[in-house]
Write a structure and sequence with these properties.
The protein is of the alpha/beta class and 174 residues long. 22% of the residues lie in helices and 27% in strands. It contains four helices and seven strands, in the order H-E-H-E-E-E-H-E-H-E-E. The model has no long low-confidence stretch (mean pLDDT 89).
Length: 174
């Protein structure tokens, strides 16, 4: 019997990943089991880079120190952070790394339903968490970004597509 997380992976591919342009510069924060990168590379996406705290990520290190990792400001078209923002606040870093108009793709447990996710983990229906969920956030309150779409999945998970606002045009002085 497949775990719920396996089913969710297939749905995330269709919802989040397939719509991305094949030549987009894509950073995955918290690439973990590497399934996003395996899918993207296998499907012909050419600009994927995976980041995690431990090898074998493409870039190993703490994303909050992105400049020390050799990453450049405003260099990505899309950032993927599936099941990451409940572990670390990375909104400023994502904002800094995304091009104006770039897309932030997020999934995370619904804060008030995280206890159910723990029960599902305990009975082996969902993958075990790697660290505490001490940064749970309701996607309707995400800072810095414009919400394109936020949806709840099975009442337990929240999926969000967010956009970094385009640069403000300064008025010309008369």
């Amino acid at each position: 019997m497949p775990m719920l997380s396996d089913i969710a992976q297939r749905k995330k591919i269709d919802y989040f990943l397939r719509p991305l342009p094949k030549d987009a510069a894509i950073l995955e924060i918290g690439c973990g089991e590497k399934w996003v990168g395996e899918f993207l590379r296998g499907a012909g996406y050419t600009g994927y880079v995976g980041n995690d705290l431990v090898p074998p990520a493409d870039i190993v290190g703490d994303i909050t120190k992105w400049d020390e990792l050799g990453l450049k400001a405003e260099s990505f078209d899309a950032i993927v952070a599936f099941e990451v923002v409940e572990h670390v606040d990375l909104f400023q870093e994502a904002y800094d790394l995304l091009k104006p108009g770039g897309t932030l793709l997020l999934t995370s447990p619904v804060p008030q339903m995280d206890w159910v996710m723990q029960v599902l983990e305990g009975v082996g229906l969902n993958q075990k968490r790697t660290s505490p969920h001490d940064h749970l956030i309701d996607f309707r309150t995400i800072p810095l970004f414009e919400a394109v779409e936020i949806k709840r999945v099975a009442g337990l998970s929240q999926w969000g597509v967010f956009r970094k606002p385009e640069a403000m045009i300064q008025p010309i002085a008369a």
